[in-house]
Design a protein that fits this description.
Radius of gyration: 27 Å
Strand content: 15-25%
Largest sheet: 6 strands, mixed
């Protein structure tokens, strides 16, 4: 039997050329029936056949063959959990426990905007590599279960060309399902449970604040809106680049938050980049007479001065900052060892403390999707679950030391370096949530980072730093993130880059590294009513809250 249920299909949606092809269309063909479809040109005959054969997907609705849905089939295999043995001696064994989060069984439904575990049989395959897996058990889910109801985010500007299973692969999929049914392995029945919705009020009740927290709050409340605006961008350097500027407290660091509230006991934060540990200038000089640091410029600051060797000055003291070069992210991920990643994070924190760095601008955790991506080396994996779990382990390690925090990046879909400030990543909501955001979600929920860095690129036509969907709806509302969100460096500088006041309005709390044009743009927008006092105070509050958190002993 063939059945089309509640089919909706639009061409050119959201444009002046939008055309409704099917609206709540129903069609059924019983086994043995012969059906002819007749209609004029443009009536939808070919489109209906394309929908049935899978060369085109409906906007809404289901297509069933013998009562089995054939639309939007999930991938055949998915990493659902992993565990690492200790170093075993020859002949030695170790029993491992692998936890499988129920969300790893779910897929995202774009029609209902829900994470759903579909009814059916799920094979549990176990092995030490993806090509050496053995079916050990079957998990039976009796009914469709909605885990989470989400908001619609980052809508496509135009319909994407879909990739579908070939007839041969569909047949193999059916064969695999038949093997699950006949497999002589244990069966376990599993009933998924809906995940409780996050509270939109992530702040503490004023009555439960500590005296120190109350002091931080009062400092903000006592300042005018205009006085808080400098908190929304980094400490402005007189140098063209923050990197290498003499005004930076830690030479070679990436930048600092604004110090306008230091007289009230709220310090600025020092941030350092580095895909393989923290990256600082290996050496710098201080003039003995003026006690000032000699400028080194951006080229002298990057890659330890290889691009522009430093010049030694007379009557100057030389200071050294030797940081450890750790393996890059991809190499670390190949260990599959969360305990090791936590120890790695602790080692990073030791050096952060030694060199007075508060925020490490890492880990980078974008997804390996193309071997040509110029920053794949600092990202972990092509798998979002592995990336998220390893990043969470690193976060716990770094933030176990008081005063040290991480900034997970680049949020999101930063998968190329060519035209990185202007490229538009066009992605469906399902792919966005299942692939590109999933690792970040795991890192936030399992690691609780103090900060997130948005990416340079656009996502479906909107710069990530200007995306309220990403910053407010996803990170804060859906995931419960209560840290600070910052921009990537100089994202507002290009003419077609992120707009400063829109960063604030979207919930991107800090624009880095900060420049006078950011200040001017934000003040003008506030004066014109484009930017509200509430939006400014919310962003300032997130920054101050992060500073307070890093000053406490509990990150």
């Amino acid at each position: 039997m063939l059945e089309l249920k509640n089919i909706y299909k639009y061409y050119n949606p959201g444009t002046v050329n939008e055309m409704c092809l099917f609206e709540d269309f129903q069609f059924m063909v019983q086994k043995g029936e012969f059906v002819s479809v007749v209609g004029s040109n443009g009536s939808g005959k070919t489109s209906m056949l394309n929908l049935i054969c899978g060369s085109m997907q409906p906007d809404r609705g289901e297509i069933l063959i013998n009562n089995k849905p054939v639309t939007k089939i999930k991938e055949y295999k998915r990493l659902a959990g992993f565990a690492k043995t200790r170093l075993l001696k020859p002949g030695e064994t170790q029993t491992l426990t692998v936890e499988i989060p129920q969300k790893q069984l779910a897929s995202f439904n774009e029609e209902t905007h829900t994470w759903i575990v579909e009814k059916g049989k799920y094979g549990i395959l176990i092995g030490n590599s993806s090509d050496k897996l053995k079916l050990e058990a079957v998990l039976v889910v009796s009914d469709d279960t909605v885990l989470e109801q989400m908001d619609k985010i980052c809508p496509l500007q135009e319909e994407l060309e879909q990739i579908y299973l070939t007839k041969e692969l569909k047949e193999k999929s059916v064969q695999r399902q038949e093997k699950l049914i006949t497999a002589q392995v244990p069966e376990y029945y599993f009933k998924p449970a809906m995940i409780p919705a996050k509270s939109e009020d992530v702040g503490k009740n004023q009555e439960n604040l500590t005296e120190e927290e109350k002091r931080f709050v009062s400092v903000l409340e006592d300042r005018t809106t205009e006085e808080l605006i400098p908190l929304l961008y980094g400490k402005i350097s007189e140098n063209i680049s923050t990197l290498g500027a003499a005004g930076i407290r830690v030479p070679g660091s990436a930048g600092e938050t604004c110090g306008t509230l230091e007289e009230y006991g709220i310090p600025s934060l020092v941030m350092a980049d580095g895909p393989a540990g923290i990256r600082l200038r290996q050496w710098y000089e201080v003039d003995k007479e003026t006690d000032s640091i000699y400028e080194m410029g951006v080229l002298g600051s990057l890659e330890n001065g290889i691009l522009e060797p430093g010049v030694h000055h007379e009557n100057a003291d030389t200071y050294y900052q030797y940081c450890t070069a750790f393996p890059v992210g991809t190499a670390l991920a190949q260990t599959w060892d969360t305990d090791l990643m936590t120890e790695f994070g602790k080692a990073i924190a030791e050096e952060m403390e030694e060199f007075h760095v508060n925020l490490w601008l890492a880990p980078g955790m974008n997804i390996h999707r193309n071997p040509l991506c110029g920053r794949n080396y600092e990202y972990y994996s092509e798998d979002p679950y592995l990336s998220g779990m390893l990043a969470a382990a690193v976060i716990r390690g770094v933030q176990s030391k008081s005063g040290c925090g991480v900034t997970i990046k680049h949020f999101a879909c930063n998968n190329q370096e060519d035209n990185r400030m202007g490229v538009n990543s066009c992605v469906s909501e399902r792919a966005l949530r299942e692939i590109y955001l999933r690792g970040f979600e795991i890192a936030v929920k399992e690691g609780n980072p103090v900060s997130i860095m948005t990416s340079y690129n656009l996502i479906n036509g909107i710069h990530a730093a200007n995306s309220k969907d990403l910053c407010m709806t996803v990170a804060r509302k859906e995931w419960g993130f209560d840290g600070a969100i910052m921009s990537d460096w100089n994202t507002t500088v290009p003419e077609d880059g992120s707009v400063p006041w829109k960063c604030v309005a979207a919930g991107n709390d800090i624009i880095m590294p900060g420049n006078p044009d950011d200040d001017k743009n934000i003040r003008q927008a506030y004066k014109e009513g484009k930017l509200t006092e509430e939006e400014i105070r919310n962003c300032a509050g997130h920054l101050v809250s992060m500073i307070r958190r890093l000053e406490s002993t509990d990150c």
